Every structure is written in structure tokens, then in C-alpha cells.
Amino acid sequence: MPEILYEDNHIIIVNKKCGEIVQGDKTGDETLADTIKKYIKKKYNKPGEVFLGITHRLDRPTSGIVIFARTSKALSRLNKMFAEQKIRKTYLAVVKCNLPETKKTITHYLVRNRKQNKSYAYDKKRINSKKASLTYELTAKSDNYSLLKIKLHTGRHHQIRAQLARIGCFIKGDLKYGFPRSNPDGGIHLHAFKTEFIHPVKKEPVSISAMPPDDTVWNLFKPLI
Known about the structure:
This protein is α+β, with helices and mostly antiparallel strands. It has one domain (3-224): Pseudouridine synthase, CATH 3.30.2350. It is built from 4 helices and 12 strands; from the N terminus they run ββαββαβββββαβββα. The longest helix has 12 residues, at 32-43.
């Protein structure tokens, strides 16, 4: 079972492990959504099919916070909140690069290649491109790596991975976007660390954090997060 970070009658928030898939793909592997449905069915002794709405996705090699809706009302409201960028998300990334500035907002134009399942970031508008913006902040450094705290201003396919690669900043383990070698577990050092929003039904502030996975590099930085 994944770590449950928050749960009520309307939403459930979990800490996804790297390698888990949120929604079904061509691999046919069991999804995180399927696992959570089984958990709800058992915990609440629910007969029949369990409703669980997928409000957003997290790349398979990425870890961290995923929000699911437990009711159709919560799903429609969360979808609207995501579309209107009313759900604030902060990520952590372990990278290898020399950043000219310790804090900066960067903007690119992303073009998605569905065949490659990859996005390419450009400095100027291209045909079929979508504007992407984030702010990174250098939080800590080790001999080999840097820890970045990243705030998303838009939600694009592989946005953080593509934008950081564009500025020559490569996420540890991310072969697809330029890091020279993969991690042993196939994951990458990108973690959805924090989410903040107003509850779609209760209208109360919700602020949830999830610590990164247990590995040597993450553990080096955890005291500094």
C-alpha cells in the first residue's frame, strides 16, 4: 500500500512511489488507482464498483503527492481547480548542473512528441507549442548534486524535466532528458513534495507534504528540506 497522506469522504491523497503508474498504459501493469480502489473497498466494506476519480497524473519514474477524488462532485471541482491553476504544487529535484542564479523563473514553449512520449522546450513559440513556466530555487548542494525546490506555474507534459534539460540542468537518473545514467530502481530524483489548495467541498485550506523516497541521495538532502 502507498502512504496515505490525507483521506476524507471526498478526496484521498497518497505518496506515490517511483515506478508506480497513476493510470493504465500499454504495459497493463496494475495502477495506483486500482490499488487505492481496493483499499477503499476493503476499509469501508463497499459493495460493487468503487468510484475513484483521477484528477491529475504524475510521471511513472517520479514520486510524490497524487490527489484522487472519491466522489463525482469532488472530481468535477478538482478538475476545474487544476484547470484554473488553483492547486499549488511544489516539487523537489536532485540535479547536476551549474546554475547561474540561485532563484529564477524560467519560461519556455513546450512541444509534445507523443510517439517518443517526450516534450521539447524552446525559447520561442513553435507550431503546436504551449507556454510553460516554473520558478526554481537552489536549496542545498553536495559535492556532486544540487537540490532544487520548484514551483509550477503551468501544468504541462514532462514540464519540469524538459525545462530543466533546456537550461542544461539534468535530473539524476533521467536518461530521457539527458542525465548520463539511470537510477537502479528506474526512477528519477524528482518528487512532488507539497500541495496546497482549498478543499473542493469543505472549503477549508489543505496543505500536504510528503517526504522523498528512502535512498542515499535523498537522505543526504532530507535534513535540509
